[in-house]
Design brief:
It is a single chain. This protein has an eight-stranded parallel β-barrel, surrounded by five helices. Helices cover about 30% and strands about 20% of the residues. It has a single domain, classed as TIM Barrel, CATH 3.20.20.190.
């Protein structure tokens, strides 16, 4: 069973931070998932929420601040907010699932990927237009359609976008979605699975799934 480190390894270090990315690599994950948002001056920074307050010592709206503004904040572990460039430098050749949180992200993402030819990117998003653009410009880069509430409709969306697969909240996973995904050769990753018993149950029910977890140390051999 493949394991993706969620927001790096968010159960071992502050999510989407250098420490979390390094912890995920140390645990030998199959891939690292992280979230990116656009700043006011069109830099992609690694952060999940639209506002910084949950992970930093100040509360700023990411898309209203420049990168320089955001650099004035300290994350709650003392680090700076990472740019995607910096994150890819840390991750190296480990596969990475880049979740695009904002619209208009693709142009900057393409520039960054050009600067990191050895990166192994996969692109995931709830912003389906962004995935459409990625498929058009980078057809060989795997893409994943994300969904919170519609576990059957997502199959049709993924097929229309010619996506590699889908990412689902664990609690809406069901046998019909699994059968359809397997039928149409779509990969599935489930988020966020942190319990070993739950993971074993899911693997018995759906043997080809990929798990996204805050705690890769519970599922990897290292």
């Amino acid at each position: 069973m493949k394991i993706i480190g969620h927001r790096g390894a968010a159960g071992l270090a502050l999510e989407n931070s250098r420490a979390a990315l390094r912890a995920a690599i140390k645990q030998g994950v199959d891939a690292i998932e992280l979230d990116v948002r656009l700043t006011a001056d069109d830099h992609l920074v690694v952060i999940h929420d639209p506002v910084t307050g949950r992970v930093a010592d100040g509360s700023q709206t990411v898309h209203k601040q420049t990168l320089a503004d955001l650099r004035k904040l300290n994350l709650k572990n003392g680090e700076e907010i990472l740019t995607l460039d910096e994150a890819l430098d840390i991750i190296g050749s480990t596969p990475v699932v880049i979740e695009l949180k904002d619209k208009r992200s693709v142009n900057e993402l393409l520039l960054i990927l050009e600067r990191h030819p050895h990166a192994r990117p996969n692109i995931a998003s709830f912003q389906h237009h962004e995935l459409h653009q990625i498929r058009r410009v980078l057809p060989d880069v795997p893409t994943y359609v994300l969904e919170r509430f519609a576990p059957v409709d997502i199959i049709n969306t993924a097929r229309s976008l010619q996506a590699t697969g889908i990412g689902l909240n664990t609690w809406i996973m069901n046998p019909l979605t699994y059968w359809l995904a397997r039928h149409y050769r779509l990969e599935i990753y489930l988020y966020t699975v942190n319990n070993r018993l739950l993971a074993r149950t899911l693997h018995l029910l759906y043997p080809k799934i990929i798990l996204c977890t805050n705690h890769p140390e519970r599922f990897t051999s290292r």
